[in-house]
Amino acid sequence: MAGALIVTAELGAGSFGWLEGLRRKHYPPERNRVPAHLTIFHALPPSAEPELRSRLAEAARGTRPNASVAGLMDLGGGVAFRIVSPDLDRVREELADALHGMLGPQDRAGWRPHVTIQNKVAPKAGRALLVALERDFAPCPLEIRALGLQRYLDGPWETLGTYPFRG
Questions:
Q1: Burial of 118 per CB tally in 10 Å (0-12, 13-18, 19+)
Q2: Calpha distance 131→55 (Å, rounded)
Q3: pLDDT of residue 2
C-alpha cells in the first residue's frame, strides 16, 4: 500500500555494514530498493503518523535492546537471518497493543524478526545461498541503535524519523 508507514529497528553501524554487504552481494539488484533492515510493523495507515511519532519517541527512552543473529531462515526464494530479542519482542508487543485497531493482516499475524539477505530468486539459488551461509554461521550479537519510521513509496522508502535509544 503506497504511503503506508513502516516501523523498523535501526541497526548499529557494525551490524548494518555486515548485513548490507551481504544484501548487496546476494539480493537481485533490480529489486533491492531499501537497505538492510529489521521490520517491526509492515503497513500502518498514514493517518497513524502523529501517534506513531509519539509512541516511538516514548519507546526509545528505554535502554538499547539486546538482540542476536540466532540462525538462518529459508524463505523459499531467498534467505534471511533469524533475529532473537526478548527486548524488541516487548517493544513490539507494547506498540501492537497500543495500535491494535490500526494493524493490518500481516502485522496482526505475529512477528518473526529477521533481516532478509536475498529474496525473489529461484528456490534453487535460495537453497544454495542458505547452504553456503550455514557452513560458516555462528550466532552473534546484533546491534540495535534506534527505532525508525518510514513511508512506503511503491518500492523505496522515505525516512520520516529515527528515534535513538537513550536509556
A1: buried
A2: 40
A3: 65
Residue 92 is predicted with a pLDDT of: 97
Closest CA relative to residue 99, chosen from 49, 27, 157: 49
At 155 the pLDDT is 84
Mind listing the pLDDT tens digit for each residue in 116-138? 999 999 999 999 999 999 999 99
Q: What is the DSSP string of the chain?
A: -TT-EEEEEEEPHHHHHHHHHHHHHHS-GGG--S-S-EEEEEEE-GGGHHHHHHHHHHHTTSPPPP-EEEEEEE-SSSEEEEEE-HHHHHHHHHHHHHTGGG--HHHHT----EEEEE-SS-HHHHHHHHHHHHHH---EE--EEEEEEEEE-SSSEEEEEEEE---
